[in-house]
């Protein structure tokens, strides 16, 4: 799923409804390396709360991100969790060009929203483990496998 139509929500008497939605997450580049989420999709939970005529949308997700450690390049995984909030005013004009949010004419751009949430939730450095020793800058040997690795005079 890439988009969600808010018209399809049925509040009945509730002030809040939620849906769990499978959202596509295309493989992406981070720090010059390629990453992806398992199955190229996440289950995101969209909660819509009515406040008068307006809506508050909350999008939450938890996923693994898989890709190379940025120090030693071994395949690594990181669990991330992210949460975003959007406000939708009633009667917002269709296709409002000034709106930089994720909702246009009651259509939620889930794909873009999830992609931004995942990007924001990534750690500053994507590592196989916090104390990864990385690769030898001289010969490229894996220093995790060989902690005593050294070069003459270095
Ligand atoms: Zn590493
Ligand atoms: Zn070396």
**Major beta sheet, specifics?**
4 strands, antiparallel
Strand order of the largest sheet: 2-5-6-7
Q: What level of helicity do the residues show?
A: under 10%
Q: Using the CA coordinates, give the radius of gyration.
A: 21 Å
**Helical/strand content category:** mainly beta
Shape: rod-shaped
Distance between the termini: 54 Å
Count of extended strands = 9
Task: Quote the average pLDDT.
Answer: 91
How many structural domains are formed by the residues? 1
Which molecules are bound besides the chains? zinc ion
**Element string (H = helix, E = strand):** EEEEEEEEEH
Strand content: 35-45%
Number of helical stretches of at least 4 residues: 1
Unreliable residue runs: none
Task: Describe what you observe in this structure.
This protein has 154 residues and is mostly beta strands. The chain has one domain. The protein has one helix at 110-121, and strands spanning 3-5, 16-24, 28-30, 33-35, 41-51, 54-68, 75-88, 103-104, 107-109. Strands 2-5-6-7 form a four-stranded antiparallel β-sheet, covered by helices on one side. Strands 1-9-8 form a three-stranded antiparallel β-sheet. A hairpin with a 6-residue loop joins β6 and β7 (75-88). The protein is rod-shaped. The model has no long low-confidence stretch (mean pLDDT 91). One zinc ion binds next to loops.
Question: What labels describe this entry?
Answer:
mainly beta, three-stranded antiparallel β-sheet, 1 helix, four-stranded antiparallel β-sheet, 41% strand, 8% helix, 154 residues, binds zinc ion
Care to give the gist of this entry?
With 154 residues, this protein is mainly beta.
């Amino acid at each position: 799923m890439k988009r969600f139509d808010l018209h399809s929500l049925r509040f009945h008497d509730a002030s809040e409804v939620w849906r769990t939605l499978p959202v596509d997450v295309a493989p992406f580049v981070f720090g010059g390396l390629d990453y992806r989420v398992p199955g190229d999709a996440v289950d995101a939970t969209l909660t819509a709360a009515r406040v008068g005529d307006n809506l508050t949308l909350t999008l939450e997700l938890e996923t693994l991100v898989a890709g190379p450690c940025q120090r030693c390049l071994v395949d690594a995984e990181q669990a991330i969790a992210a949460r975003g909030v959007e406000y939708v005013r009633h009667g917002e004009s269709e296709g409002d060009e000034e709106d930089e949010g994720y909702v246009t004419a009651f259509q939620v751009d889930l794909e873009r929203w999830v992609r931004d949430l995942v990007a924001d939730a990534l750690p500053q450095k994507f590592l196989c483990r916090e104390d990864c020793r990385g690769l030898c800058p001289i010969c490229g040997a894996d220093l995790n496998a060989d902690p005593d690795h050294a070069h003459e005079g270095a």
